[in-house]
Amino acid sequence: MFFQTLGGIMSEYPFAEVEKKVQEKWENKNVFAMSQNPRNKYYVLEMFAYPSGDLHVGHLRNYVIVDLLARYYSQRGFDVLHPVGWDAFGLPAEEAAIKNKIHPRKWTEANIEKSRKTLKSIGIGYDWETEILTCDPEYYKWTQWIFLKLLEKGLAYQDTSLVNWCIKCQTVLANEQVENGKCWRCGSEVTKRELKQWFFRITQYAQDLLDDLEKLKEGWPEPVITAQKNWIGRSEGAEIDFSVMGKDAKLTVFTTRPDTLWGVTFAAIAPEHRLIGEIISDSDRKKEVEEYIKKSVMKTEIQRLSTVEEKTGVYSGVDLKHPLTGENVPLYICDYVLSSYGTGTVMGVPAHDARDFDFAKKYGLKMKEVIKPRQNTDNKESLEEAFTDYGILTNSGEFSGMNSEEAIPMIIEFLKKEKIGRGKVNFKLHDWLVSRQRYWGAPIPVVHCPSCGVVPVPEKDLPVILPDNVEDYMPKGKSVLAAVDSYINVSCPECGGPALRDPDTLDTFVDSSWYQLRYPDAKNSEKLIDSAKAESWLPIDKYIGGIEHATGHLIYFRFITKFLHRLGVIPCGEPAQRLFNQGMVCGSDGSVMSKSKGNGVEAGEFVGNYGADVCRVTTLFLAPPGRDAIWSEQGVAGAKRFLDRVWRLGEKYTAGVSNGKAGESDEKKLRRTMNLTIKKVTEDIENWGFNTAIASMMEFVNELVPFEDSSSYIFREAYETLLLLLAPFAPHIAEYLWEKAGKNEFVLKSGWPQYDPETVISESEEIGVQVNGKLRAVLRLPFDVTEDEAFSQAAESQNVKQYIEGREIKKRIFVPHRMISFVVKA
RNA sequence: GCCGGGAUGGCGAAAUCGGUAUACGCAGCGGACUUAAAAUCCGCCGGUUUAAACCUUGUGGGUUCGAUUCCCACUCCCGGCACCA
Predict the structure, then answer these.
(1) What is the mean pLDDT of residues A184-193?
(2) Sheet strands side by side (includes A432-433)
(3) Which ipTM value was assigned to this complex?
(4) Hey, what domains does chain A have and what are their CATH numbers?
């Protein structure tokens, strides 16, 4: 019996027994199962997690927040979908395999089991029937299917590209695995290597991805929208052709400032540019150029990170011809020019571009001023810095005297007519490199046949199963799978002749780019998702995760959603209606909590010591969910005391004793507090103010504790209301006490209290009185006090009197329920 | 360099259509209960001060009867992007 107060000892919330019991009850009755035909759906999801093993309290925050919402919306009568899954492919499993000789699958499954246990111990209400694992063939079958569809539509292609290569590890590294130009694992220098890779043509969706950000403005945080906008990086300008002197060749540049075309004094080309070899073939500076290229390509990574100041380059020995003036334009090879953006070649306008200015100054190149500032045209003899704003064109032939804004479209039109240029829109966004020379990922469903070329695996043969019989996971310069004969050798689906499977696997961002579509129909073996299910559950209503995914996952996620939408698989073009960025939890050292830093507090251990509900309340009370927070055990005591008091209220309720009659005014006050608390908690949940919601429940409890008559109707009503409000925050204790209170239905299905606006009005309230902006008194006045009455009462108040007496009152201000203010002449 | 977020008691934080700054909690102090301690309950708790008064939301200005809230300038901290022509 939990409800006996033994020998005067104040009882505490016996979390171990209660939480176990409640969790069993939830599980037996399958309370979190998704509805098969939702009328009023609500889909909440936290961002996909990598199963790293032990969850720490930092991870917990996210789960607890989303669970709170799921439970809240359930109580509000929505059909909630709150699923869980695991982003189970990826490098760490492989690293563990190499290090500890354990199969990546085993390692991954063991970790997932561990995390599952922790999540269950916190009482997160998932429908475990819908759980997905990206390393499950039934899941990656559809990852592969999406790949085939992209291939079919020309949105997946192979191309050679320079990739990060660690010589020591003999492997390709993703950008985020390169830290300051060094390999994240072995610390040795990373070089570039040209390899054939698979890409998704996300750039084809760039404009769409950009345009639809408009639709997300209401539901997504502004910083994410901005980050995506910058990442997509649309810029309008023109491509202009420059012919190569003495050769039948031309180079095209991209510029956003065609109005500065007359100011071109040199041109610069990226060292990696594909045409360099051809252009310098008979230059007398061939040797220097080749040396420079070799040097800059090798050290690209380090340079990118360290140099912003120094620009280097080498004269190619070749000149271009200015398309308008016919003048010689020397061509330089410069590593400040990016090969991956625009055309890999730029026109140099030192007078009007800061970078070109630096370069020209260093190499003593000419500067030609062709844009004048609109205001103060004090002619300086030599330029001290580039003038990069729009202005008035000068020395620009027939366009001289025009404003940049009007000249730009006219110049583009002119270039088009002369067939030496055209308008052009460029994006910073690059095509998405999706192949990895790695084992632990979804196999790329493609066969390479010597006679038929690249042949997609027929849909009926999906999934292409990742083989388990691998002995050595150490990459040897190519994918591990290339060495698995039984896997790699296959007959061509077209001609039946001997062929090879693609040895690469897909980037894990591909796995996580569509997972939200799978939950509503996780077991469907015929389709990615049944269209009726898609119709009734998609899109996500609330999506919660860290801002660090703003330009990675969230772009891929939107892209694949859009693609599948166009394909007719799903009804929506955006994956998530609302996005919320929860803040990070930092360890006591102030840095982000993580296993590798050793500053994590293990979740399982914490729950074992204090219980799930204390853990939840502590986490939620720590700070508002959007803000970064430093973990501290200090809050635990408060959370524990709070729940212990609730527990004792339960005893008081059960006992139903009347220690003297509560006065009418006390009852009225309690009714008022109850209604105010309902209002506050409801609004706070809607506005992500979980910490203040808890604060107001604490105030409510503080009033209930000393309330005399626990057999009174109002006490019983208030207590029951408290349990309903508390349930999303501390579901175990709420559920248990709800049952003890004689309720038959789960608290989760027992509705959400409504507040009565009438009762929150109190008879009187305290109003501050200011004189010349300084607070001089606080008066208790009737709620419906008239303005005149308020002024006269205020003026009579002792302390106010001394400040206004004998002085001319210039102004009186009355703000109902808040403030009375007098302005007097000094 | 550019973009974004932040700065309020000893600590986590609350209050922004401008209206009694510091709710709630932690820590601390005092008291009740107890042989005692813990737990629990009650009270105090920004600073100078007997009170009155004055000062106080990173800094300096401004608007206003009144500014944590709005405007301008700046400092520091955190995060992201980083030669995108």
Answers:
(1) 72
(2) A171-173, A156-166, A190-200, A432-433
(3) 0.94
(4) 1-18+634-755 (1.10.730.10), 31-132+203-228+512-632 (3.40.50.620), 145-201+431-509 (2.170.220), 235-426 (3.90.740.10), 764-824 (3.10.20.590)
